[in-house]
Amino acid sequence: MTVTAAFPAFRPRRLRLTAGIRRMVQETTLRPADFIYPLFVRHGRDQRVPIKSMPGVAQLTVDRLADEAREIAGLGIPAVILFGIPAAKDAMGSDNYNPAGIVPQAIRAIKDAAPDLLVISDMCFCEYTDHGHCGIINLPGQAHYTPALPEGYLLNDPTLELLGRASIVHAQAGADIIAPSGMMDGMVAAIRGALDAAGYQHAAVMSYAVKYASGFYGPFRDAAESPPRFGDRSQYQMDPANRREALKEASLDVAEGADILMVKPALPYLDILAAVREAFNLPTAAYQVSGEYAMLHAAAANGWLDLRRCALESLTAIKRAGADMILTYFAKDAARWL
Ligand code: PBG
Hints:
By secondary structure, the chain is of the alpha/beta class. It has a single domain (28-337), classed as Aldolase class I (TIM Barrel), CATH 3.20.20.70. The protein is built from eleven helices and twelve strands. It has helices at 19-24, 65-74, 102-113, 156-173, 187-197, 218-223, 244-256, 270-279, 290-301, 307-320, 331-337, and strands at residues 35-42, 48-50, 58-61, 79-85, 118-123, 136-137, 154-155, 177-180, 204-211, 260-264, 284-288, 325-328. The strands form two sheets. It has an eight-stranded parallel β-barrel with strand order 1-4-5-8-9-10-11-12, surrounded by nine helices. A two-stranded antiparallel sheet has the order 6-7. Strand 2 and strand 3 (58-61) form a beta hairpin. Helix 2 crosses helix 3 (102-113). The longest helix has 18 residues, at 156-173. The protein is globular and about 80 Å long. The protein starts with 18 loop residues before the first helix and ends with a helix. The site of ligand PBG has 10 residues, from helix 6.
């Protein structure tokens, strides 16, 4: 007979004894309303094109969106985020600001089918430019060429103007929230200013405030057909090694009028997510990206992990770290599992 004095009177295991008591003391609870489901909308008709590296995820044509939107809304998921794959790409990414472009068409189709489903429009140019970069590139002979800047440099301010223009077009089509993801300096202010000037004061801005130059976006670039044709995105996306810079980026977006901040990717960056949530009194979103989804599926397909258990554990960890909402390809599965 032994340890009494030093043994703590409180025994944490008392509160783990049964499923009922564990449920009662659970601190973080996932619900379908936590999720935002990404949709890839492609040109063409009556097609569902599966993405090999993202099991269960597919590009859908606009005519397939009504059923999809009703299914998502029926699961209690409040919002979708849209990525467009246009029929033709060009140097300026003009499909993004064409009122008849792929995303404006998609927004209208979703709003017709499921008016209460929130539509977030991913605001970036990489899916629409022929070079695959997130804005206008500095090249001799092309618009906005600036000899003082390096060739191939992504031109910040001319890109801002197009982001503003495209945001108005998406808001006009019915987007509730514009989500700039290109990591241009000043993108939130440019979009806020453009929306306000055009009368869309009510459209919110969810900023990809802290977006790292991550290898985990690999499968997405298959899905969105958007890999850069030269170079990479490290001149505008953040270095994975940096944390102070994340807080700086987020504070700029707050000052520029962001309504919601996002951190991306999610699971490898929980420290950043927690720091951003702590530092700013704004709703904070986390994006569980394509590579995070693909890893879990690949391991599960080999019988190495239990998909449902590990997906829900990951989503719980992301929420526990501070996410008020999670963009995730697991949204529909998780809503069914919960
Ligand atoms: C840019 C954008 C990307 C993702 C979301 N928005 C790709 C990139 O920055 O290269 C990645 C999302 C994912 O990997 O799931 N429009």
